[in-house]
Every structure is written in structure tokens, then in C-alpha cells.
Specification:
Pfam families: HIT (PF01230). By secondary structure, the chain is an alpha+beta fold. The protein is built from 3 helices and 5 strands, in the order ααβββαββ. It has a single domain, classed as HIT-like (HIT family, subunit A), CATH 3.30.428. A 5-stranded antiparallel β-sheet has the order 1-2-3-5-4, covered by helices on one side. The radius of gyration is 14 Å and the shape is globular.
Length: 127
Amino acid sequence: MAADVEKAQRAAEGSSPTIFSKILDGSIPANIIYKDDQCVAFRDVAPQAPVHFLVIPRRPIPRISRVAESDAQLLGHLLLVASKTAKAEGLEDGYRVVINDGKQGAQSVYHLHLHVLGGRQMGWPPG
């Protein structure tokens, strides 16, 4: 956990291209489990639960705190894809959706992404 916080503290907003843009352009491979014209879902390379995947928009949005009214449809679509993909991954008993924002939110990649974690009992509080 401390390593994740340190990584987030070193991350720079606006650094381009991000690892996610490289996944989107195919220059970095990913285990893609869903894709459409607006987003892509793929398995996390360092899973924190038995099922851990990310949902990212194709259009880069650096942070959830920087979205605009015009992003409402895309944000809703990301959540629908998270739900549909969680169901396809067998997470009938529930799961957690996490969006990190900024350094104090432990965001380490400045391309909006939803973490979907499941397959075990989640604890509370989360952080």
C-alpha cells in the first residue's frame, strides 16, 4: 500500500503518453476483456483482488475532478460497462468500483480509470 502512495506522489499530471494511451494504441499489450468505440476494459497487471480489471475511456480525461457536463454520457457508459463486465466476470455477489483522483487520492496514472475489484469480501474503510 505504501508503494502505491509513493507512486501516486511521483506521478505527474499531464505526462504524456500514459501507459493507458499506449494500451489503447496497441504499443503495450493488455488482457482486454471488453472494448467498444468509447472505452476498453482490461485485467489489472497487479491485481488487488481475485478479479481486478480497469475500465478506461478511449478519450483521455486526466482526472474525475476535471470532467465537464459534456462528459456525462461517457461517464455513465463507463459505469454501465463496469457493471456488464463485472457480471460477465462472475461477480454476482458484489464488487467494488474505485476511482482515484489526484495525489492524495493515490492516482498514479492521469487517464481516468475505474478499478473494478471483486471475488472476495471487501473491507471498510477502504483506505
